[in-house]
Design goal:
It is a single chain. The chain has about 120 residues and is mostly helical. A two-stranded antiparallel ribbon has the order 1-2.
Length: about 120
């Protein structure tokens, strides 16, 4: 799942911001994109910084208009508003992080707070 999430973030940032495309051709191949968990962790941290920098540079004009791309998962060209796609980028991360939180909780792991007003 961590490989998939990074791959999805990379492909969306390739589409939205012109960042390099992920090394893996598709999400199915994303599990082989990194040789080790340590490599994946380093790549995730570096990519997160790029993502934060990009998000900080956004303004209303950046979110105007549509983006058209070919979706391998849908098997067709799609066109959607940029603001919606940026929202999806962050919603997708939240969804999968929630899944991980649920799995850890089910295994009895005490997880840190996820309530924004209570976070450091």
């Amino acid at each position: 799942t961590l490989n998939h999430l990074l791959w999805a973030d990379q492909i969306w940032m390739h589409r939205l911001a012109g960042m390099p495309a992920p090394a893996a051709a598709g999400i199915a191949e994303s599990v082989s994109q990194h040789a080790s968990f340590e490599e994946l962790t380093r790549e995730r941290a570096a990519f997160d910084q790029s993502l934060e920098d990009w998000a900080a540079s956004l303004d209303a004009a950046s979110l105007e208009g549509n983006l058209t791309w070919y979706s391998g998962s849908a098997g067709r060209e799609i066109e959607k508003p940029k603001w919606l796609l940026v929202t999806q980028l962050f919603n997708h991360q939240t969804h999968h992080r929630g899944q991980v939180h649920c799995m850890l909780t089910q295994f009895g792991v005490k997880t840190p707070t996820t309530d924004l007003p209570l976070m450091p």
